[in-house]
Write a structure and sequence with these properties.
The protein is mainly alpha-helical and 499 residues long. The chain is built from 21 helices and eight strands. It starts with a helix and ends in a 10-residue tail after the last strand.
Length: 499
């Protein structure tokens, strides 16, 4: 068998398998017919492995690939799937664990040893396996494979010889690790997402670049940590930052807000733009004594402000909102005076200090039952399946039998509906909404803009980028108030000229 014959053999085999697998792409196929088709494809894989011509064709193509790598040194060698279970978990959770589209892409690559599929064929297979609910751009599956699956050793990029003229195309083939671990895990995750009507990227987050590349892995570790310590009432953002090896808590807040929105955790914190010396207090309903303070001159103003806030519906009091109330009548009143009186009123028993204390306790994180169940039903089994233990093999064997084509359409539909990329909103729509929000408020912070966009049903997570765009265009301006940054609309005719 020569190179041309090897290419014709593999190309013809692929066409034959596509014909045999046609019932899997037919929505009217019965469960019995689907099961038989899967068994037929499995039997063909066993026959291929025993066929001398098949082995020779694969060997020739492998030699051509090795020769291409030798002649073109820039071509990267195959990546190896990690051997360490923790590294495996990090690789899997960040590549396919958070993305139904990547799971379906991976499963659309044939699983029998040595089988190749070209990018165009992969796109066609993906659309068919999605039941037509997601007709993506033709290059998306190729991009997902090259960016997420090849780098962790689940897929290899191959040279495919397709005809007697030695026409060479780039194709993809699953590695042994991909068949052993990627297949069952992808099937399990598609089934879970479909049955629970969730998009896993809403929980694990998106795989980005640089500092954000570990986002899914970090979220999984946060949920595990909280689940292990679910009876501890004093878990702080600082504890989670230490767990993840982060120097500050700035990257934790957004993650915890996202997990809270998904109903997995409860997260509360002081306002970090005004957190210095902040005490959240409530009135003590059992107080019957006499209020007093060493700072007599400021006591009456502070008590009157607390009473006014209470009459307006406030139940929580702190230095900032008390001071704002006092300054309605006395603009020169000092923050430090309020802070000292509030401290005395706490010692006196008139006020009860809440959970947050100045710069000591700034946040509180608690996992909900739904979060613990997600850890037990998804994260822990994933970790187990990536070990080379009897328990891990048992799980993989169980998941390998999942009829993933049954679950793929619904899982992909849910993912697409929740994808910020697949349903990207025109930036001009967001900018118009942001301008209206700022114009309707005398001054507003970035976080408040996000909340109002969310109320309008618009994608609020990209609001900060749009704020920067509007700022650069001279349509809005920013002023510092203490540690807070406040946004204002720039009225026409009052634009600020650049110096």
């Amino acid at each position: 068998m020569n190179e041309s014959e090897a290419g014709e053999y593999i190309g013809g085999l692929r066409d034959f398998r596509k014909e045999v697998g046609e019932p899997l792409r037919n929505p009217e196929t019965t469960p019995e017919e689907r099961t038989k088709t899967i068994q037929d494809l499995g039997s063909l894989g066993e026959l291929d492995h025993e066929n001398a011509d098949h082995r020779q064709a694969l060997r020739i193509i492998e030699e051509l690939r090795a020769q291409r790598e030798t002649n073109h040194p820039k071509i990267e060698k195959r990546a190896e799937f990690p051997t360490d279970p923790e590294k495996r978990f990090e690789a899997i959770i960040s590549s396919i664990g958070n993305h139904a589209g990547k799971q379906a892409t991976f499963l659309s690559i044939p699983s029998f040893p040595g089988a190749n599929i070209t990018p165009d064929e992969l796109h066609t297979a993906f659309v068919e396996n999605s039941g037509g609910v997601w007709r993506t751009h033709h290059s998306l599956q190729k991009a997902h494979t090259q960016a997420s699956l090849i780098p962790i050793g689940m897929v290899a990029e191959e040279s495919v010889i397709r005809d007697g003229h030695n026409t060479e195309l780039v194709g993809f083939t699953k590695t042994e690790a991909g068949r052993e671990y990627g297949d069952p895990i992808s099937k399990f995750l598609l089934k879970y997402a479909s049955e629970h009507n969730i998009s896993l990227d809403q929980i694990f987050g998106f795989t980005g670049t640089n500092a954000n590349s570990r986002a899914p892995y970090n979220r999984a570790r946060i949920l595990e940590y909280l689940s292990e310590r679910k009876d501890d009432p004093h878990i702080r953002m600082a504890d989670l930052a230490e767990l993840l090896g982060l120097k500050s808590t700035s990257q934790i807040g957004g993650t915890l807000k996202a997990l809270q929105e998904e109903g997995l955790v409860i997260f509360d914190s002081v306002d970090f733009e005004n957190s210095e010396g902040k005490f959240i207090c409530t009135l003590n309903p059992d107080f019957h004594g006499e209020t007093n303070s060493r700072y007599k001159a400021a006591l009456a103003s502070t008590l009157n402000a607390i009473k006014a806030l209470q009459e307006s519906g406030s139940t929580e009091f702190e230095t900032g909102n008390i001071l704002s109330e006092i300054q309605k009548n006395d603009v020169d009143f000092k923050r430090d005076s309020v802070r000292k009186v509030v401290s005395d009123l706490i010692r006196n028993g008139y006020l009860i200090r809440g959970e947050f204390e100045g710069n000591k306790i700034l946040s509180k994180v608690t996992i909900l039952q739904e979060g613990t169940e997600f850890v037990n039903n998804v994260i822990t089994p994933l970790r187990t399946s990536l070990t080379d233990t009897p328990e891990g093999k048992t799980l993989r064997d169980e998941w390998r039998n999942i009829n993933w084509q049954k679950y793929a359409p619904n899982a992909l539909k849910i993912h697409k509906e929740n994808s910020r990329i697949a349903n990207k909103t025109d930036p001009t729509v967001l900018q118009k909404a942001i301008r209206e929000i700022i114009s309707q408020n005398l001054a507003i912070r970035s976080g408040e803009v996000e909340n109002k966009l969310k109320e309008l049903g618009l994608p609020y997570k990209s609001s900060r980028n749009q704020l920067i765009t509007l700022f650069k265009n001279g349509e809005i301006r920013k002023e510092k108030q203490g540690k807070a940054s406040m946004w204002y609309i720039v009225e026409k005719g009052h634009e600020i000229e650049e110096e």
